[in-house]
Fold:
Amino acid sequence: MSLSSPVSIAVLAGDGIGPEVINQALKVLTAFGEKTNISFDFQHGLIGGAAIDTHGVPLPEESLTIAKASQIVLLGAVGDFKYDTLDPAIRPEQGLLQIRKALGLYANVRPVKAYEPLLHASTLKPEVLQGADMVIVRELTGGLYFGQPKHQGENDAVDTLVYHRHEIERIAHVAFQLAQTRTGNLCSVDKANVLASSRLWRKIVEEIAPQYPTVTVSHMYVDNAAMQLILNPRQFDVMLTENTFGDILSDEASMLTGSLGMLASASYGEGKAALYEPSHGSAPTIANKNIANPIATILSLTLLVSHSLGLPKEALWIDEAVNQVLLAGYRTADIMQEGCTLLGTTEMGDKIVEALKRL
Ligand code: IPM
Ligand code: MG
Structure:
């Protein structure tokens, strides 16, 4: 992709720990830009609770305009308990769902890798985690979160799980193409023994498979997949699944990396628009204490640099900087281990910037 200079990036920091982790990512991206002679123009906008407080809606028109103009969006996190009693249509989470929909970001990619220095930070046994390296490809703009009708009454409530052929086809192609560049092992996760939408999903994945002869496809029920992920995570390479299953399984899979604070997330659509964020939420209970782990957001920059800036080799520098800081024994509270040095959010950001500059 040819870069206009400066590269314009919409920054929607959001709520809770969002602004803290985003600030670290901006420092890292700026340092990356200095190294590569790329300048960035950060356009800030509101989303989530921060937008509800000022504009009464979770995704104000201005924020969407900035996002559309920039093509690249860097997002923190949304949500806070204080909005739990609001009308569901204007809850902070809707801001995130709305921006995904408005930008057509149907393909969510969450790389899950067991970091060698963090093997002992996870609650799972190191020998189970070692070598785990997979990517979850989650459908992001269909299924239960968007299906109509949706309604909540006093004594009944409805969510609709609907999938259309084209939605399944396009996400399946993303997963097959990704699998081609990796070990060629694609596992499609569904609940075809119970759900009609899953049976259609499975049928379409099977129909597409012959177009990708180097990819081996398997199918797994979601309940089994939840178990297999922690029984033997190394069996997975690319995992393809629908919106809700992917939401749940990616949080579970984050434990393979040591912490939810390590899991990056990128969302892509048909065009150039892309949104990068940590997989984790706004964690309001630890907000403004300088204790959140900024690494998930920083790692989402590797996806940004590789995909949106078209610089896959340089993207590895960010990964390497994170790795070096972990190897040197620096940790935030969520991944703290005996004998390591505890850092705050800002200090972790600084260490990664220093490591990046040294590379
Ligand atoms: C995620 C989050 C969101 C989702 C919420 C905040 C709407 O959990 O990105 O995984 O469910 O997609
Ligand atoms: Mg989630």
